[in-house]
Amino acid sequence: MFSTVKGLVESNNFTSLPPIYVFPKKPEDSMLSTAETVPIIDFSLLTSANDPDQRCKAIQDLGNACRDWGFFVLINHGVPEELRDEILRASCSFFELAEEEKREFAGNQVLDPIRCGSSFNVKVDKSFYWRDYLKLHVHPSFNAPNKPPGFSEVLQEYSEKTREVADELMKGVSKSLGLEADYILKRMNVESGSQLLVINLYPPCPQPEIAMGLPPHTDHGLLTLLIQNELCGLQVQHHGKWIPVNPHPNSFLVNLGDHMEILTNGEYKSVVHRAMVNKKATRISIGTAHGPSFETTVSPAPELVSESHPPAFRGIKYSEYLELQQKYQLETKSCLDRVRISTSEINNY
After folding, report:
1. DSSP alpha helix (H) spans, 1-51
2. Residues 6+ apart with CB under 8 A from 82
3. What digits encode the pLDDT tens for the residues 67-100?
4. CA gap 54, 59 in Å, rounded
5. In this structure, are residues 221 and 290 in contact, taking their beta carbons and an 8 Å threshold?
6. What is the helix, strand, coil percentage profile of the chain, to 5?
7. Under CATH, what is the fold of the domain 5-347?
8. What is the pTM assigned to this prediction?
9. Labelling 239: which of 31, 140, 148, 322 has CA 20 to 30 A away?
């Protein structure tokens, strides 16, 4: 059996999915809505030093997006479009490597600096997902494959640029919560924090209606910045319905992660999202997940805990949360729910 979906597609001229890739779906999975508009945040206004009123309004808009959606489109972010195009091209070139070459970077453990594989975790997945991936820990130490030529250099530049954007966003989130701008950065040790770069490849699928690129899930960490090629496939869950996301040109798709929900004591939610596949062409997406340092224990911020809002989550070390996530299938907020404090525990607060 081929180790990647891309290898499977290229090995056979098949018209139906192997049974292991058939994803069981629920009635609510088909509840789509195109009527709602995803929030748009203008990064240039959020960081403007020239107009305090505009900046205050942008911070308020950011807070509303985090509270109501856990997701937004980020425009005017300052990352060069040429760099975004270059990393998409370079990522495609990596997946064009021979299967044997990609296996050199397979990795075994969640904290391995480089991991290349398929599905999510083939050891526990009951159905395999129509997705190949490359996962790289790019901060606090930078790790990348040594092939194809020039790939590592592009990855490093892109990682640095997105980290700058993420830091500014976290300052805005802190301000929107009524906290000091550097609150999240300092409390979460973001300067030495984790940045995980994930490249997802979704090859054309002969039966997309019964397959899944990635199932409904939330991300670990504080927030994720995502770009993709011209093919759409991301859907976010809002008020029980799935919203297809059609991003603006040269924008980032930003979603909050589980650790932002823990830190804000549930004030801001990590958003459930999924990746759909198509039969026409290959979709590729690149996400950078920004989180605390591995040794940081994440618990609700004391400033956001009160008698009327008791702590909703137990503290957990970030590295332990990553390992916990790898033990189970991806399923909505199943991992976050394992550190959620029960109602009876809250009543005893």
Report:
1. 5-11, 43-46
2. none
3. 999 999 999 999 999 999 999 999 999 999 999 9
4. 9
5. yes
6. 35, 20, 45
7. Jelly Rolls (2.60.120)
8. 0.93
9. 322
